[in-house]
Amino acid sequence: MLFAGDDPWSARAFHAELDAGGYYLVARDDEDTLIGYAGLAVVGRKLGEFEASVHTIGVDPDHQGKGAGKALLGALLARADELFAPVFLEVRTDNQQAIGLYEANGFARIGLRKRYYQPSGADAYTMMRPARTEEVAG
Length: 138
Description:
The chain is of the alpha+beta class. It has four helices and six strands.
């Protein structure tokens, strides 16, 4: 189980995200077995006004710490950078590995959401990475 104590993404939620135009990726191992997935939602009407939100990143526990999450996040951020969009996300306050990955990629904590994850009631940090400017991204 990827998210012990919580069930944040039902099949219906994934389908709704895809129907809404969400940007989703999967990671596979050398044997073509699914080992992870990630999703990014983008809102806005034109370049310079977009905002992106990392909706999920999950990596099979047997494959964590081997670069799959970093690669998935990198691909999501590259998409956001194409749109010059700031990126937001929530992460469990006790997930130090993920927090470290996000901070290493330019995210900063901007808020706390009490009892964000259900049914566990775990708290989440809201984090944000500023939009890349054309000069940096180009």
